[in-house]
Amino acid sequence: MNKFPRITAKKLISLLKTHGFYVDRVKGSHYFLKHDDNRCTVIPVHSGEVIGIGLLQKILKDCEVTKEQLKKSNN
Q1: Which residues on neighbouring strands pair with residue 27, listed in sequence order?
Q2: Which residues pair with 28 in a beta bridge?
Q3: Residue of 4, 12, 30, 39 with fewest CB within 10 Å of its CB?
Q4: pLDDT score for 38
Q5: CATH for the stretch 9-74
Q6: What are residue 22's phi and psi, to 5 degrees?
Q7: What is the 3-state secondary structure (H, E, C) of 16-64?
Q8: CA angle 16, 49, 10 (to 5 degrees)
């Protein structure tokens, strides 16, 4: 079965950094990530909590990163 990985926000941010994203700004618990080609997304960071599947799908769609690319960079 091709499941989404269970991942925390901090780990997701570090994985997206390997795809060229950087933290543009932080407002409260929301991290705004941006790429040089103007792709961007917002990730809510709450320590120890796993990102929900629906939110993870939305973040990956915004970033134009596939589930397979995320799993590959997670290994």
Answers
A1: 30
A2: none
A3: 30
A4: 93
A5: 3.30.920.30
A6: -140, 155
A7: HHCCCEEEEEEECCEEEEEECCCCEEEEECCCCCECCHHHHHHHHHHHC
A8: 25
Q: Are 12 and 24 in contact (CB under 8 A)?
A: no
- Cα dist from 8 to 5, 27, 38, 46, whole Å: 10, 18, 24, 8
Per-domain boundaries in the chain: 9-74
C-beta neighbour count of 53 within 10 angstroms: 12
What is the model's pLDDT at position 29? 95
How far from the centroid of its chain's Cα atoms is residue 20's Cα?
A: 12
Q: Looking at the predicted structure, is the pLDDT value of residue 24 above 70?
A: yes
Give the list of residues 6+ apart from residue 47 with CB closer than 8 angstroms, or none: 10
